[in-house]
Design goal:
3 strands, about 120 residues, 3-stranded antiparallel sheet
Amino acid sequence: MWRRTAHRWLRPCDFMLNAVKVWASGGTMPPDQLLRQVFETCADYATARRMLEQTPLSRAVIYTLVGCAPHECCVIERTESAFVTREDDTCAANDWVPCRPGWEGRIGTRLPKRRD
């Protein structure tokens, strides 16, 4: 998540401002819709990778892509208009590799406590 503020109590403000930015971004595609389009239209790994790297998006996302050949594996870290693709030592987490100033891994709800 793009952070405009630093205090943890202001995280909801950043979340809301990011949502407004996505809503107002006309002409760009949400990352999940791009992924669906890639699955429906791309015939091979190279075409899918190119489309995931180059299509303008409404918000940042991290994609993992695996093809059929042993060397067809990558992680694509996307912002709205730029990308970084890693093919060696690939794994995806909830943050950029390396960490980038101003970005914070998306926060979610806490898992319920176990009752034993």
